[in-house]
Amino acid sequence: MAQPLVDRAFLEKLERLTIHWQKSFHGLVGGVNTSRFAGGGQEFLDHRHFHHGDDLRAVNWRAYLRLEKLFLKMFQIEPRVPVRMLLDCSQSMSTGVSSKFDYARKLAAAMAYVGLVRLDTISIHPFSETLGDRYLCSGGRHRFGPAADYLGQLSLQGSTDYFQVARQFIGRYTQRGLLIVISDFLSEADCDKPLQYLADFGHELLLIHLWAEEDQSPPWEGELELVDAETGARLELEFDAEARERYRERFEAFSRALQRTALRNGGRYTGCATSMPLEEVIFGPLAPVWGM
Amino acid sequence: MFLVNLSLGEFLALFGAVSGAMVALYLLDRSRRRQVVATLRFWTAAEHPVESRRRRRIRQWPSLLLQILALVCLLLAVAQLRWGSPDTSSRDHVLVLDTSSWMAARVAQGTLLDQARTGALAWLRSLPSGDRVLVLYADALATPATAFADDRKAAREAVIRAHAGPSALRLRDAVEAAQRILKLHARRPGEIVLAGASRISDDPEGWAPPANLRLLAVRGDPDNVGLRRLALRRSPVEPDLWQIFVSVRNYGSQPRTIDLGLQFGGAPAGARRLRLAPGAEQEGAFEYRTRAAGWMEARIRPGDAFTADDRAVVEVPERKPVTVAVCSAEPELLRPLLAANPLIEATFLPPARCAEAGAAAIVILDRVAPQPLPQGHLVWIEPPSDRSPARVRARAADARIERWRTGHALGAGLRAQDLRLESAMVFEAAAGDVAIAETAQGAVILARPATSSRPARQVIFGFHPMRTALRYELTTPLLFANVMRWAMAESFRRYELQAAGVGAITVPVEPDLDTASVRVQAEDGRELPFTVQEGQLRFYAGAPGRVQVTAGDRAYAYSLTLPEVAGTRWEPPDGIRKGARAASTGVASASDLWQALAVLGGLLLLIEWFLFGRARDGVRRVPALPRLLRLDLRGRFRRMQRPVRRAS
């Protein structure tokens, strides 16, 4: 029997969490996230004067009997904001002593469970060179099993092409929403511009940057023959402490650039190493995601 | 300087192989390695061009040098490098382990044998590995437990396996046996190591121990009071009365008062309080009346450190009387003769009721010849001429007994001369018949041994002893006693029962004892060898048990339940070596360096790790094991220090 992605005890800890977003989106009624827009919701928001064409069912007839003026009751709309999750399935996610891909799948499963518990709908989009078919998670916590099975069956393939992925995503999904990207953001081309496009189209970006220990600070020393996991390109070099320092500086600069992109567009950025326990990440760096 | 465990060639071969493998691994480790990474974009900043022409060069050569030096130190430690002159050859030692009965005595920590074992094992550990050891168990006999071998495990097992025996230590015999073993079987004689209590049964006076004797003495010499002997014999005048003799000895150096108690079949049979001076031995005499069989037990209280001699047990046999039926018309003639012997239960029957004598062991037919004849041994007195078992040659009047067959059991002790018989039947001896008494005309008393056709013995009197002049002679009761003893030898045998210790046992016997009649049998029916010399029968019993000695009309039952306790303490001379220390002088002159070499090797490895190893992370070709061995301290530290970036 295959090991479950996340165990029951951990899922129980996730029960009290809710996925929060910062922006307000036009959407359908549903879910538990409140909106600033008035509309046909269940919760009373305010009164306003009646205008022609308004729905007579919303008139406050008690106020009319007392004041002989028509007032209309306004209700708070409860929009169903689309929460989409992009999961990196490229070969670069396979490197590291503890696989980044496994870690990403566990993280995605945890977030999907949080959404299911709150009756939110979360669509999972695997991607590498292109955007894969989505998997829709909705209908409550009892639907978590199929979602976990789906995540468990994903496999790594190809390299990452963020331009292509962003283009396909914008083309397929016009409705704005929260876009969670779980990836190492390592590709041959820069991922800054594609992320900017996604933000420009109104999506709220939540970038979860995963890295392995070796990605951040390679432990090797001496003569190395490096092979790119995605492209197969080779590089021979001599690596020492000084070179390691330069490597780390580049990596830090890359992380900072990702963070800037997210913040610039009103999004959020969280970076974490795969050596950190998942629970520690959920209730630590990812705390703002749950509004904690 | 020399190596103990390896020869120089072996060491060099091992060093060459291991150092070659180390250099190869070093080159492999330091060579260019292929690594799959997530991206190459950050590596370009760290890039240095590789000098391909020196790809296999040794970089960090001090690291390699330190590792090789550490390897040399560790290999020398394994080879047990010693400073000094080497011993040219191994030595052979004999470990004499005292397994005498005294070694079972308890002291503060275990028994004396436990202490001897501890000392012997410590001595074995101190021996150079090349020396060979033979373990010799020593009590009254010296028995090799192992052959000469450098297999320490076998020697250790032999030492652990040893247990205290029933006999005392004969030190001189044991040491002489060890010397003989060294002389005959040792390649290069070493030491004779005696591990024991030095309590011996032989006399150490005038004995000079060999120069190569080492003593591993045990501590403690507990006081002991023990039973030396428990002897029982039937009273000669009252067969149901047992005369009991108990001998107790104080082996200690303090006077002791003990309670000596006897029990027969669990019931008290006697008690006495004895005060024993140091080294003194006292005897207690008791009497106990019984005809039943059972166990007679002697016990002394209070107990002491050596409990094996605090109790002795003897099996007492049942007394079975000899039944004699007398078919006679004049029973009063023979009644005094039979009443004199307490072992006989006589029944007197008139001639008409002779058939009722069938169950008797011996039937005396006084001038009668019943039909059918009884099954028991028969004593005919003047049988009817026509039905006599022996042919009557003649009837003699006023005949004189001229000769007694004193060599026969029936004629033993009969020397009466000039006995005149008023009337006597003279028999003609058949084949197998023995004439016991003869007149000038012929035999007047015949003995007919048992045959296959008739298993009963017969004695035929040609005259009536109580109707002739013989009735006034001492010969008559002697003759009848001989008749009874010859017919029922087992019943008339004189028994002596003794509880004694195992070992050599001496039994006083009659000087003219026929050695053909002597039998010494162990409990399982096995015949034990013996010697008879100068009125003393000697045999040796090495194990506890019961030994039956039959010598003539006497029988001795030895219950060998008491241990043989040595009464002499051997004081070793001053010059003798003591304690568990390595014996080989050649090796002793060299000092061990392996401890220092092992520490140095470890230090060199530590220095190498501090200088070079820390720079290398454990994650290499085999990631799991090296990381585990090095505890991945660097990675743990880095994770602890790393801040987590996040956007809020």
Helix share, percent of chain B: 10-25%
Largest sheet of chain B: 8 strands, mixed
Q: What Rg of chain A is obtained from the alpha carbons, in whole angstroms?
A: 23 Å
Strand content of chain A: 15-25%
Unreliable stretches of chain A (pLDDT < 50, length at least 5) are: 28-32
CATH superfamily of the largest domain in chain B: Class I glutamine amidotransferase (GATase) domain
The largest contact between protein chains, plus residue counts on each side, is: A-B, 62 and 39 residues
Helix and strand pattern of chain A:
HEEEHEEEHEEHHEHEHEEHEH
Give the averaged pLDDT of chain B, no decimals.
81
Quaternary structure state of the chains depicted: heterodimer
Count of separate DSSP helical elements of chain B: 11
Query: What is the averaged pLDDT score of chain A?
Result: 83
Q: Within the largest sheet of chain A, what's the order of strands?
A: 8-7-6-9-10-13
Question: Roughly how many Å apart are the termini of chain B?
Answer: 73 Å
Tell me the CATH topology of the largest domain in chain B. Answer: Rossmann fold
CATH class of the largest domain in chain B: Alpha Beta
Structural class of chain A: alpha/beta
Instruction: Name the poorly predicted regions of chain B.
Output: 51-56, 583-588, 617-648
In the residues of chain B, how many domains can be counted?
A: 5
Brief overview:
Chain A has 292 residues and is an alpha/beta fold. Helices cover 32% and strands 23% of the residues of chain A. A 6-stranded mixed beta sheet of chain A has the order 8-7-6-9-10-13, with helices on both faces. A 3-stranded antiparallel beta sheet of chain A has the order 2-4-3, with helices on one face. Chain A has a two-stranded antiparallel ribbon with strand order 1-5.
Written description of the protein model:
The complex is a heterodimer of chains A (292) and B (648). Chain A is 32% helix and 23% strand. Chain A has helices at 8-13, 61-67, 100-117, 144-153, 162-172, 192-200, 213-216, 241-264, 278-282, and strands at 28-29, 38-39, 43-49, 71-76, 79-80, 83-88, 122-127, 135-137, 178-183, 204-211, 222-228, 234-239, 268-273. In chain A, the strands form 4 sheets. Chain A has a 6-stranded mixed sheet, sandwiched between helices. In chain A, strands 2-4-3 form a 3-stranded antiparallel sheet, with helices on one face. In chain A, strands 1-5 form a two-stranded antiparallel sheet. The model of chain A is unreliable at 28-32 (pLDDT under 50). Chain B is α/β, with parallel strands linked by helices. Chain B folds into 5 domains: 2-44 and 54-85 and 594-640, no CATH class; 92-222, von Willebrand factor, type A domain (Rossmann fold, 3-Layer(aba) Sandwich), CATH 3.40.50; 229-319, Immunoglobulins (Immunoglobulin-like, Sandwich); 322-491, 3-Layer(aba) Sandwich (Rossmann fold), CATH 3.40.50; 501-561, Immunoglobulin-like (Sandwich), CATH 2.60.40. In chain B, helix 2 (61-78) packs antiparallel against helix 9 (594-611) and helix 3 packs antiparallel against helix 4. In chain B, 37% of the residues are buried. Residues 51-56, 583-588 and 617-648 of chain B have low confidence and may be disordered. Classes of the chains: A alpha/beta (292), B alpha/beta (648). Chains A and B meet through helix 7, strand 11, strand 12, helix 8 and strand 13 of A and strand 2 and helix 11 of B. Strand 11 (222-228) of chain A pairs parallel with strand 2 of chain B.
